[in-house]
Amino acid sequence: MTTFSIIVVLLLFAAVLFGLWQMQKKHVKFSNRVFAGLGAGIVFGGALQLLFGAQGAITTGSIEWINIVGNGYIGFLQMLIMPLIFVSIIGAFTKVEGTKNLGKISSTVLITLLGTTAIAAFIGIMSVHVFHLDGAEFVQGAVETQRIEELSERQALVEDLSLPEQITNFIPKNVFADLANTRDTSTIAVVIFSAFVGVAYLGVARKHPEQADFFKKMIDSLYEIVMRIVTLVLRLSPYGIFALMTKALATSDFKALINLGVFVIASYTAMAVMFVIHLLIISGFKVNPVTYLKKAWPVLSFAFTSRSSAGALPLNIETQTKALGVDHASANFAGTFGLSIGQNGCAGIYPAMLAAIVAPTMGMDVSSPAYILTIMAVVTISSFGVAGVGGGATFAALIVLGSLGLPVSIVGLVISVEPIIDMARTFLNVNDSIIAGVISSKTIKHFDQDILNDENAMIEADI
């Protein structure tokens, strides 16, 4: 009977996949298909939970097969991270008009990303105080216990390293190993190596323009190939999101969700406040927030549903250049750096909140200005090297908690609500990278105000 029920569930799952495919054949907008997958996953997963239970044999048996679609989609997104970073950063160097702009662009983007991360960390700490979560204890179940054990093993990779040693660990000692993503810091290592290649290109361009031109054409061709691969992978988004949401709802422990409900509300509140701060920042650079939201909404909504900054990168860059008026170099630098540096949600608010929650249990005074500044500093420095696909927030939290001498068990205790929080975190991460591109373009005075004001200059993923 169990096997028969699993087969029925999988047939229904396949029927929904077929429906999403039919929507694609009829050229329904990509964003509508993505939200259809999200909604279908919530309904289908919730139904499995109610009918068979989160740990029931039918649910676990069905999810094992459904994971092929969900985990396969995540795997393809992870496949894209290194090629995207490599070609986007080098491509940014080939598009820079003069080395003077290079310095302004890179410094402005980095200052924006890191500065907003520090602000995000402060907002996260304040959110913990407002919702009285400092010192809070969460119920620990079997899933959380298993997660804590896994995290303890992972923390062993960084716990013996001081913060300066962790920073040194970003250097790509073996770039081929980092391109294969063999280390937790491989992402930032590839960023550094790609920047070296880009700087070398500028040097060759001055002395040997013919060879540099050949290299530029090669990178442009490679960029187009990689972006085409991205398009092929993004076509899987509605199906992948449907599978991932089905798993999230079907296997969620609703008691744990209730237990962590205040934490979820506090997290979303903090990210909403930080999003408003983003809008205030661009207002200071004479960009209308309402116009900005209209132009940026397609890529932000995709980031929210896909939970992948890397997957959103092509839309991110295209939105900046074709809808907002950002120059190509600033857009590429900001979008690519935003994959691994200063993510406001994953590397700012999230680890700061966890540190503020658990610190009082270790006798720390989280209301102390000195300790708040310490958390902000550690979070900001640790925000380097956060991967653009799932797992980056966990790595950032491990480094922050380890550097502050705090237990990592809190990361495992909130695992039940990770998918829910991660949607808003990714939304905020991508928005911050777009903000950095706008500010950079404004700084070097290459921002095209006419494109921003053009109501027809909108980006809708044609996938």
N-end to C-end Cα span:
41 Å
The secondary-structure element order is: HHHHHHHHHHHHHHHHHHHHH
Question: Number of folding domains?
Answer: 1
- Give the helix/strand class: mainly alpha
| Content of β-strand | under 5%
Spans of at least 5 consecutive residues with low confidence: none
CATH architecture: Orthogonal Bundle
Oligomeric state of the chains present here: single chain
Mean pLDDT across all amino acids: 85
Shape: globular
CATH topology term: Proton glutamate symport protein
Largest sheet: none
What is the H level of CATH, i.e. the homologous superfamily? Sodium:dicarboxylate symporter
Roughly how much helix do the residues carry, as a percent range? Answer: over 70%
Number of helices: 21
CATH class: Mainly Alpha
Total strands? 0
> Radius of gyration over alpha carbons?
22 Å
GO molecular function: L-cystine transmembrane transporter activity; symporter activity
Membrane topology: Multi-pass membrane protein
Subcellular location: Membrane
Pfam families: SDF
